Each structure stands twice: as structure tokens, then as C-alpha cells.
Amino acid sequence: MVTLTEVEDEHFQNTQAGPEVDDDDYSDTDSEISNESDYDPQDETLAERLYALRDIVPPTTRGWISSKINTVSNATWTALSFSGKATWVITTSALFFGVPFALSFAEDQQLTAMEQEYNMRQQGSELLTAGGDQTTADRIGAALGDEKDAKAAL
User: Fold this and answer.
1) Model pTM greater than 0.85?
2) Is residue 10 part of a domain?
3) Would you give per-residue pLDDT tens digits along the chain (154 residues)?
4) Which CA distances in Å does 139 have to 114, 119, 122, 135?
5) Contacts of 134 (CB under 8 A, 6+ apart)
6) What is the dihedral of CA 62, 68, 73, 76, to 10 degrees?
7) Can you spell out the DSSP letters for the chain?
8) What end-to-end distance do the CA atoms of the chain give, in Å?
9) What residues have CB less than 8 Å from 87, skipping those under 6 apart?
10) Residue 103, domain member (yes or no)
11) 143: Cβ contacts below 8 Å, ≥ 6 apart
């Protein structure tokens, strides 16, 4: 019968020169799974999960994706900046030109209303002071009759 005897090499019996290494820090991950961890996958955010996947994507693809994201964000920033400036220009133009126009239009309307009121007062005073032999009712009827004749002529 054959018996096996382990013979250790002298090279493995001598320790290496260098710092003392504690072998307890190293463990074999295949031998057992530790259940003592406080890790809970439910506490992980979506951003943390996506950040953990960064090593799966090759660096060239990551660079391409990053450049596309930068291009889109720059275009969005430019569009928002331009629209904000355009809104500012339109608003200030409306204030500088629209408000004075609205005020002058309202003043013109007020002057027109005042002229109409003045003309109505003139007509009223003419009716009251015209001709001493007619009564006020006859004068109003005559004025209304003149209007009826004018409408019929049209």
C-alpha cells in the first residue's frame, strides 16, 4: 500500500519580509453568506441603483450619453433664456406703448361724451326758450315730427 506524506517546501515555511498581515480580515466569499448585514434593498433610491450600474456601460457609451445629455440641457437652457428675454421685451413694449394709448383713447372717449352732453343741453335749452306762442309739448312734438319726416325721407 502507498501512503502519502506531505512535505512542505522551505520557501513556504519562512515568512516574507514586510508588515504583519492579519489573515482574519480576509474571508472566502464562496464558503458562506453572511446574514449579519444591515443592508436593506428597500432603502436604496433609484439614483443609487442607477449610479451602481455605471460600470456595466462601457466608457465610450457613457461619454456619448453624457455628450447627448449636455447637448439637450444646453439647448433647453438656450430656449428658456431666449423665451424669457422675448417675454421681457414684449411686456415692456406693451407697457411703454399700450398704456399711453389706452389712456389717450379713454380721454378721447370722455371728450366725445362731454361734447354729446353739451349738444343735448343746447338742444334742450333751445326747446325751452324758442318761440313764446307754442307750448313745450308742442315744441317736443314738432321736434319729434321733424325726426319722423327725416327718417321717412331716408
Assistant:
1) no
2) no
3) 788 888 877 777 777 666 665 555 555 555 555 566 677 778 888 898 888 888 888 889 989 999 999 999 999 999 999 999 999 999 999 999 999 999 999 999 999 999 999 999 888 887 777 655 556 666 666 666 555 554 555 5
4) 25, 17, 15, 6
5) 142
6) -160
7) ---------HHHHSPPSS----GGG---TTT---------GGG--HHHHHHHGGGTS-HHHHHHHHHHHHHHHHHHHHHHHHHHHHHHHHHHHIIIIIHHHHHHHHHHHHHHHHHHHHHHHHHHHHHHHS-SSS-HHHHHHHHHHHHHHHHHH-
8) 145
9) none
10) yes
11) 127
CA distance 84 to 87: 5
For residue 13, tell me if it sits in a domain: no
Name the phi and psi angles at 49, rounded to 5: -70, -40
Hey, what's the cell of 52?
451602481
| 32: in domain | no
Query: Cα separation of 106 and 112, whole Å?
Result: 10
- Which pLDDT belongs to residue 126? 79
Residues spanned by the domain of 119: 45-153
Q: Which residues contact 57 (CB under 8 A, 6 or more apart)?
A: 65
